[in-house]
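Re: weekly structure request thread

Next one in the queue (382 aa):
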Amino acid sequence: MSDRSDLADGLSPASIRGACAAIGMSDVSTRILVDTAATVAGSSRLRDAAIRCAQLVFDSCLPVEEAIASWPVGVSRVGLPLFFDPTVLLAGFRRLAADHRRRGIPSEVTRATLRDLDLWVDHHRSITGAWEVRETGWLARHFANRVFQLGRLQFEPRTLELPFAVFTPRLRNPAAILAEGGRRFRDDGQFADADGGSAATGSAAPQATWTSRFVEEERGWQGSVVDAGGRVQPASVFLDRGDWNPAARRGDPVIAVHIPATGRFNGPLTREACADSFRRAIPFFAKHLPGNRPRLLTCESWMLDPQLARFLPLDSNLASFQRFFHLLPVPGADDSQTLERVFGGTIADWSKAPRDTSLRRIIADHAADGIRWRMGAGVIVP
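Done, posted below.
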């Protein structure tokens, strides 16, 4: 690992205060972070632990998630001051800001990206009433030069992880997506392990399952196609090489789309705001991080559950967001993210679920009637 002096300097109360000002953190969050930095500075044990944690994120060759898992502070966090984790991340702010300047990344992108930290502080404050940050692994991606906010949406260079192959037409037609071979699906087009492998939506008994087929031939590709509603169909289709080009398969570079919550920093998820973000994404990465050339955008989110479109107004922001994508099912999809994002956690009794917004009312009412909400996915081929 490199010399630790710049990270140690970045942990000082003055540096943390400067980072908070540059990002635009709230006064309360800034005060807690500066107090945390002072506590860390006053303890050799905490200071050494914080520097080691920062080195793992910013200097090691480990993926961010593994770096966080390797922090020498224990899972229980006993004895750590409030906001220890975000203070460690902020220690790398000056290094990140310098790298962004070198790459020509506008300062407003840096600021908008890192403000996600305060957005999550707001989120937990509104849900639990506590001043806390639980998303260290996620937020570390922002500080490690992986996530960038461009307008309303966030983007991250990734590889395609879903078991599908995407093809683009030589003529101006929609893209086609085929499932990998050997995958088990239900009759409703969802993966067999969706909803915990239980019965499909509205069904009293488990559905029959079938296995997808994918064959690459000299003339083209044949396999199980994903329809416009995000369902994998058992009937096989053939894509001729003369008419179609392969765009991406699992393991190929893509740009992942993330959706920061509406709040103090982010306005409504309007179609216009999303369209602006999508237009900016691929040119941004081509200019500022040209290491690979992703050819499509992907997203996995509760917002891409195709069932939502059945009950939401056509002109609603969420329904409009879905229409940007060719929808896909997700292996093992369940309702956990839906419940977390919409209600703040699991619901034991749907009759008692809060219905203070139209979205909560729609989700609660139809869940009470047997709908199984689940994570969805989608791709955009620019």
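The chain has 14 helices and 14 strands. Confidence is low (pLDDT under 50) at residues 199-204.
Next request, please.
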